[in-house]
Amino acid sequence: MAVVLFFPMLLQLLSPTYAQAQKNITLGTTLAPQGPASSWLSPSGDFAFGFRPVEGNTSFYLIAVWFDKIGDKTVAWYAKNTEQDPLTVQVPSDSVLHLTNDGALSLKGRSGQEVWNPQVTGVAYARMLDTGNFVLLGADGKPKWQTFDMPSDTILPTQVLPCSKTRDKSLRARLDVNDYSNGRFLLDLQTGGNLALYLVAVPSGSKYQQYWSTDTTGNCSELVFGETGKVYFALTNGTQINISSGAGIGSMANYFHRATLDPDGVFRQYVYPKKASAGILGGEAWTVVSMQPQDICHAIVSGVGSGVCGFNSYCTFDGTKNQIASCQCPPWYKFFDEQRKYKGCKQDFQPHSCDLDEAMSLAQFELRPIYGVDWPLSDYEKYEPIGQDDCGRLCVVDCFCAMAVYNQSTNTCWKKKLPLSNGNMADYVQRTVLLKVPSSNSSRSIIDTNSDKWKRSRKHWVLGSSLLLGTSILVNFVLISILLFGTYCRITRKKNISLSQLSSKSQLPLKTFTYKELEKATACFHEVLGAGASGVVYKGQLEDELETNIAVKKIDKLQPETEKEFMVEVQTIGQTFHKNLVRLLGFCNEGSERLLVYEFMTNGPLNRLLFDSVRPHWNTRVHIALGVARGLLYLHEECSKQIIHCDIKPQNILLDDNLVAKISDFGLAKLLLTNQTRTNTGIRGTRGYVAPEWFKNIGITSKVDVYSFGVILLELVCCRRNVELEVIDEEQMILTYWANDCYRCGRIGLLVEGDDEAIYNIKKVERFVAVALWCLQEDPSMRPTILKVTQMLDGAVAIPCPPDPNSFISSLP
């Protein structure tokens, strides 16, 4: 019997995921991320202390305390270096944490250097308590150091932030949900007896101003998380100020509790059911039961700093029950970094040059009204009384002005310059924001380098000509020029009428390139990036100030069908603008030459990344899937004319230098008017990604793109092509068949076998596969819209079990 019991214990000890659950942790014990033990459990197993992988970067680990019995293993504490150097400790996978025989806790990196030490000696043993407190104790059993005394962004039940007469105690928010660097908000327990929330500077932590406080005084006040679930501020006179109303909402017996200063600056109390049957407050997830302040978007108006969101963005609530603040960019602006939106937004167009005169400024820029959004600061000039039209004109001609704000009730106008701060969306805003953006009738060629030089000398040229030639000669010259230009227009009107109409209707100003410009930019079309049915794509570089890299698609065949395709592509892309679509910069329509000029995508097509020998990180694949879905959502539902791409495949999804996915190649797109739902056309697309209805006598809808997206979604999950003939198991030859079989048999893990990151996120893998199977339904009416697909991927809506698509591949060519 002893032998029988020994082997299971031995297997546990050798398992890399094994965590030691013991009352006392003795001297000489070690932890390692990939060793026999990576964490120490509390006696109940509710909490663990040890190495916790950093979300999105599994090569690095935190030293942390986390809730170990719940699905997302929420971190409640993480180590920082020192109070003087409060950087979060993040270490590689070959690090070791050692409770030394000398009675110290020491973390060492790969080269043996000490990375972190809580600076305590004489430790006799350690304990991970069921309260979530990790404690180093002396021989007398008294704590020498404990995580409850050094909180990061969270406090737990029974935890107290005690008073200090010498220094403030605080919680510091993370920079982002998955970024444990010191963030932009601070909960400060001050020596004078006040508890306050501050907006702070990153990374220094210097305080800007408080946006919530108890407004109290008194020595040695304490922040207490009571055993009943109530968070309160205890004053020296015995008064208790309730910070949360969490008491009684979820009993300690049935719910885990935590109170966290979140990255958006809100101090929230959460509960999580210990058992699924107890989840009456929102299921198996953290649910907010209290928050301070109640409306963060309107709580902060800071004279220094950007406010709740980054500069040039605005704050709004995202509509979920947990009321998480969401940051948005105004139209014609985009985030500096989609993954780090706190950095703010920038103009997604050429800024207003101060070399432009008033007439050129009015021709190149216009104002777009925005309602319900306000940036209360950044004013630099005020006019009163004044009309709205004059207010707007004064902003357009002023190169410093980024927007004007007009109050109709008082006839007041404010001009604002960048950066804009403290932006928020509010129902009470009665003023109209007039945002300065490029004119829909302007051309990008107006603002290129050569043109700028011409503009700077234009006034001098006109003045010199007038002095030399005289007024009458100049007038005659102008009249002759008009006559010659009119004759030329009559000759070429029929040939170029389509493009002239296009330029007037385009939402984005497209530049017209000459063939010689593009020939020079591409070094005589030397470097080939790719080739398709309609032409070859070359790499090039413009001779502008930024030396912009471009991709030039050269249409080789001038047959009527190809000519039509060229016009469709220019018209389609010229009227679109989205972060997940490749941007068309301009075109060439010179003689028999037809060329399209796109922004250059550094990381090339998705198939190059996805089907390489090195598997991309799981989070990268998730962001790509969401990016493609959002790009299709724009094409299908947010354009003035619905656009069906008709050839969604990895080769037509390009990646920029941040691996942001952008849909390209609209040459096969079909435009639908707003009152149309389907169109009839010849078979289009690429083998393996084509929806079954292409081969049936039925109309084609946007659901063909949904089908193709389903195939790509499975390829992203599994990191393999849809059709692979050289596989050992025939059942795995066609990915869509195999994924369906694995889903039906409850063996999703087979699809991501050997992919540790995906296996760690197996719940999300299962969700993505379910969404893909919905997209792959043979009957188009059974497939969800791309809006529904996006919501299901984001986890915003529940995903019912998809029907078994018995023949969803049977019609492949």
From TrEMBL:
Native source species: Leersia perrieri
PANTHER family registered for this protein in UniProt: G-TYPE LECTIN S-RECEPTOR-LIKE SERINE/THREONINE-PROTEIN KINASE SD2-5, G-TYPE LECTIN S-RECEPTOR-LIKE SERINE_THREONINE-PROTEIN KINASE LECRK1
Protein name as catalogued: Receptor-like serine/threonine-protein kinase
Taxon lineage: Eukaryota, Viridiplantae, Streptophyta, Embryophyta, Tracheophyta
Subcellular location: Membrane
Chief place of localization: membrane
Gene Ontology BP terms: defense response; response to other organism
Residues of the Bulb-type lectin domain: 22-149
Pfam hit, one: B_lectin
Residue intervals of the Protein kinase domain: 523-809
Record-linked InterPro entries: Bulb-type_lectin_dom, Bulb-type_lectin_dom_sf, G-type_lectin_kinases/EP1-like, Kinase-like_dom_sf, Prot_kinase_dom, Protein_kinase_ATP_BS, Ser/Thr_kinase_AS, SRK-like_kinase
Class in the EC hierarchy, top level: transferase
